[in-house]
Structure formats: C-alpha cells, structure tokens
Write a structure and sequence with these properties.
About 60% of the residues lie in helices and about 15% in strands. The chain is α+β, with helices and mostly antiparallel strands. A two-stranded antiparallel sheet has the order 1-2.
Amino acid sequence: MHTSPTPAAWAACLAAFERELTPQQYATWIRPLACSNETGRLRLTAPNRFVLQWVKDRFGGRIETLARQ
C-alpha cells in the first residue's frame, strides 16, 4: 500500500486538534480521517458517512481556518 506524506496544512490541523480536544475525542473523530493533496486543495476522507457528517458539522469551520493559516 502506498502512503503519501501528510500535507503540511493537515499536519498543523492535527497538532491543533490534539491540543484542543480530549484524547478520546481526537482518537474518535480526527485520527481516523485521511488527507490528500489534490491539485492544491486538501481532500479529507472519513471511514464512513456518519463520521464525515459529524466532523463537517462540528469541526468543518475550524479545519478550514487551521488549514488556511
């Protein structure tokens, strides 16, 4: 299986969420996400639709803000 390096913007998001969330929240909602760089845009994928929707609803704005910084 080929794994690409984590984009720097996503690595910064992960570090921020690790500081801001409880270990359980981070492990449940953020760690399962995968990130790829598609022509200059970050693309997040989740293990299922429930996780995807939950993360979008609760963390979508924060992820955008962190990624832009």
